[in-house]
Amino acid sequence: MNKMYKIVTLLVILCITQSSSSIYPEIETRSGWVRGITLRNTFGTTYHAFKGIPYAEAPVGELRFKAPKPISRWEETLNATQDKPPCIQKNTLFINHSVEGEEDCLYLNVYTTSIPRHDETQGNAVLVYIHYGGFFAGSGDSSYHGPEYFMNENVTLVTFNYRLGVFGFLSTNDDVAPGNWALKDQTAVLNWVQDNICYFGGDRDRVTIFGQSAGAASVHLHMLSPLSKGLFHRAISQSGTALSAFARPLPEIPLLVARAQAAFVGCDGNANTSALVDCLRNIDARVLVKSVDYFKFFGDQPSVVFMPSIEKRTSLNPHPFITQDPIEIIKSRNFNNVPWIVGFVQNEGLITAAELLRKSSLRNELISNFDSYCPQLLGLNFSTFPNQTDFVWTKIKDFYLEGNTINVTQPSTLQGFINLYGDRFFNYPGYKAIDLHLATGLHPIWVYSFNYKGEYSYVDHFARTNEGKDLIDWGVCHCDDLLYLFSSPALFKPLKYDSNDMQINVFMTKAWARFAKYGIPQPYCFIRWPSANKCNKELNGYTDFCYLNMTGSYETRGQIFTENNFFTNRLRFWSELPLFENFLYDV
C-alpha cells in the first residue's frame, strides 16, 4: 500500500511538472533563459508567446542618443509572459494625447507554434514586424499587434519596440549625434533574430521584414542600408517607402531641428553640438516629449518632426545606417535586392485628413488660412524653390479642388483633399520607389491596392472625434489592411468567424506567410498575382505597372483581381510638377 502511494505520488508530481513546463516553456537564448507562456487562439491553434525580451541595453543616461548597446547576459530566468511598456511617446494619432511609455523600452516579443527539439534543423519562416506611428508613436505591444492570425500559418513572428521621436532620430549631422537611433535599434533586432531565432523554432535563413507606414518606410530603408545586408531575405512595405515625405532624409534639416529642440527645453540652441547634446542628455524624458508641441503650427501639425538623416562615415562613426539620398542609392543599384511587396490602401490620406475634415474647429481654421497652411502641411517648402511654392500650390489646388477650398456641401472637395494627402505622402512616393526599383531589374516586386471596406476601420481613431461622420463615405483608411493581419483588442473587437472580413484575413495571412516561406505571395492557384516586373506598361515615359486589387472576399468572383491603372492621371500630374525630387528621379 505504501509502495503504491509513492508511485501514485511520483506520477502526480511528474504530470504537474510536465504540465507546468508546457504551459510556461523555458528557452535558453544567447543572453540567458526566458520563460514564456503557451496560449491558444480562437481557431484552436496552440502557440508559445515570449514577451518583453530585451534586445539591447536600456538607452538611458550616457546611452541616450547613441547606437544600441548589445544586451548583457542575465543570470536568473527572465519572466517573458507580459508586454513591456512602449517607448516613451505622445501618441497624437489616437484620442489620448498624454505622455506614455518609458525610455527603457528596447524589448521584443516572439510568437511561435513550435519549440524545436535538439535534432530539428529546419525551422519556421520568420516574420519580423516594424510598427506604424510616424516615427513618434506606436509599439509592438500585443494589444495592438496580436499574433493570433499568423499562428494559423505555422510561422514565427517577432514584434518589438524601437526608440521614437527625439530619442530615435535626434541628429547633429556630425559625429556627436549622427542620428538614426531608431533604425539602428531595428537593425539590432535583426541581428538578435540571426543569433537567437533558431531557439524559438525559426529559420534564420528565411527572415521577412514587414511594416506599416513608418514601419513600411523603415523596411525600405533597411533594403538600402549596408548595416542590414544579409539580415533578412524578403521585404513587405505597407503604405510607405523611403521616398515618402515623412521618411526621406533632408540633409540640412536635422541640425536645425536639434537646435530648436534644445532651445525649447532651456538648452543653448547655438552651442557647439557636443555641449548641445550633453545638455539634452540631462533633460527629463517627459519634458523632451512634451516639448515637441512647440514645433506645431496648426493642431498637431506637423505630426512628424524627427526623421531619418543622412550620416557621414568617419573613424568615430564607422557604421552609418545610410550615407546617401535613398533615390541615389536605388539608382546606384547598390542595395539589398530582396523580393519586395509594396502595398497601398484606397484612401491613404485619411491618416491626417480625417481629423482636419471632421473636427469643425480645425476645418474652419484650415479654410480661413487655406493658402498659407496647405503648402506647409504638404511640405512643399522642402520640395520647391521659394519663388515656385505658390505656383506649385496653385496647380495642386486647381487639380484636386478645382481651385476652391474645402466645402462640406461638396463631397468632391472633401474627397479631393483626401486624395491630395494620400498622393503627396504615400501614393506618388511609393509609385516612384517601385518605378526606380523596376528600372534596376534586380529583384521581383509585387504590388497591391487594398480597397476592401470591412466592419472596422482605423478612420475613427485617426479622426479622434465623433463629429462629421456623415460628411462623406470615408472609404478604406490608412492602416486598414492591418485589421486582417493582426488582432488589435485595444482598438477593435475580433473579426467575426463566418464573415467576409475573416475570408480577407485568411487570404492576407496566407499570402504573407507563403511569401515568407517561398518568396512568392501566391496563397491560391485560382488568384493570379504576377510581379510588376512581368506586366508593367510604358506610355510616353510613364510606367503603369500591374497590381493586385483587393476589393472583397476571395470567395466572391472578381473581387480580387489584377489590373494596370494605379491612380494613373493623379500620379502623372505629380510627375510633371517642378519638384526637387522629380529632378533627382530623372537625372
From TrEMBL:
Pfam families: COesterase (PF00135). It comes from the Eukaryota. Residues 1-22 form the signal peptide. Residues 25-538 form the Carboxylesterase type B domain. Its EC number is 3.1.1.-. Keywords: Disulfide bond, Glycoprotein, Hydrolase, Serine esterase, Signal. One of its GO terms (molecular function) is carboxylic ester hydrolase activity. PANTHER family: CARBOXYLESTERASE. Belongs to the type-B carboxylesterase/lipase family. This is Carboxylic ester hydrolase.
